[in-house]
Amino acid sequence: MAAMETQSAPLTLESLPTDPLLLILSFLDYRDLINCCYVSRRLSQLSSHDPLWRRHCKKYWLISEEEKTQKNQCWKSLFIDTYSDVGRYIDHYAAIKKAWDDLKKYLEPRCPRMVLSLKEGAREEDLDAVEAQIGCKLPDDYRCSYRIHNGQKLVVPGLLGSMALSNHYRSEDLLDVDTAAGGFQQRQGLKYCLPLTFCIHTGLSQYIAVEAAEGRNKNEVFYQCPDQMARNPAAIDMFIIGATFTDWFTSYVSNVVSGGFPIIRDQIFRYVHDPECVATTGDITVSVSTSFLPELSSVHPPHYFFTYRIRIEMSKDALPEKACQLDSRYWRITNAKGDVEEVQGPGVVGEFPIISPGRVYEYTSCTTFSTTSGYMEGYYTFHFLYFKDKIFNVAIPRFHMACPTFRVSIARLSFNFLPTTNTHIKF
Questions:
Q1: Is residue 264 part of a domain?
Q2: How far does the signal peptide extend, from start to end residue (predicted)?
């Protein structure tokens, strides 16, 4: 009889063993874990089990074991304290914090001055004051990033990359929030746009649209491109760089830390290299990286400016008698319409480099297209130093260039009484 009574006793939360309950709780998100505190005393005790909060601290705040030890706090306390400070950014914080951490770790041994130029994070009240000043809400992911670092000092080189040609130089600084607020736009053509970057040499900025206006999507990041053919000064086309601040910033950091953007003389150069864009002829390898320059381009009239960087390298295992000198170049240039232009000339950028085993020669040049994309290919002609009458060609791999997605200004379209159905064009 006693055995039957034992079997029929109701199963309660208090009678369940601890380990299975902790295992179940380990699968809950932090919101559900907090709600468990209000269900019963038993669940309140179990949901406060400190190891349960370790995963959430690492997932949302990227808090390491070392940081926990330094702060001498339990995991739950760390989670709550951090949430009290930056909890409104919980959906953005991990991605942006990781991007900042990765960027600084990569740049510290390579560009220490650039890392030293970063400012301490802004306070919540500082960001609130900027919102009051401009009369618009800042995107949460933008605010989140500025809580970590409030931009950088206006120095050269800038954190957001450089570009150098013989008669043109660009280096973009990441603006602090107060300077950005001073450049907030209310004029037609850039209404409700906040500058993210600034180049002291060209005046170039990348903007973020803090409100949807004039055909722009809210939170888009873009380069402005004044329509040089329009009679309306508000006709400003846009080269779209990112759909959101997070998209823009994390993709840039990814290119930097992966080595996709080379670092040359303590500067980040925004050249994109296609790993397949490499050609080897004998002992000589030629590789190409490219970049689009929005500040020298326009949609109307169609003029798209690209620069390319070429690396010519002879294998270190080549025989000494393979040393040679570049005599001339040949280019076959094709635009998106299939129009072909052929160019031949002596040397490269006025030089006739000598290539020997293990030596690398690099140079930068540029081209323009009247179409949004095109490609180049060709060859160099060399002669051997020890056999001057013996010449040979070295292949230059085909490399493609394409401008970013752009959006035509609705001011131009409406001024010219054109339909607005094709205002967003992708290539």
A1: no
A2: none
What is the separation of C-alpha 232 from the centre of its chain, rounded to a whole number of angstroms? 32
How many whole angstroms separate alpha carbon 128 and alpha carbon 264? 38
Residue 309 belongs to domain spanning: 272-407
**E strand or H helix at 41:** helix 41-47
pLDDT-based confidence at residue 12 (cuts at 50, 70, 90)? confident
Task: Tell me the angle at which helices 245-257 and 140-148 cross, rounded to the nearest 10 degrees.
Answer: 50
Same domain, 108 and 61: no
The pLDDT tens digits of the residues spanning 241-277 come to 999 999 999 999 999 999 999 999 899 999 999 888 9
Q: Are strands 162-165 and 272-281 parallel, antiparallel or unpaired?
A: unpaired
Considering the domain architecture, whether residues 58 and 207 belong to the same structural domain is answered as: no
Domain count of the fold of the chain: 3
Token reading at 188: 């037609």
pLDDT band for 412, please (50, 70, 90 cuts): low
- DSSP letter, residue 270: -
Write b or e for each residue in 200-215: b if 16 or more Cβ atoms lie within 10 A of its Cβ, otherwise e: eebebbbbbbbeeebb
Rounded to two decimals, the pTM is: 0.89
The CATH number for 158's domain is 3.40.1580.10
The pLDDT of residue 418 is 42
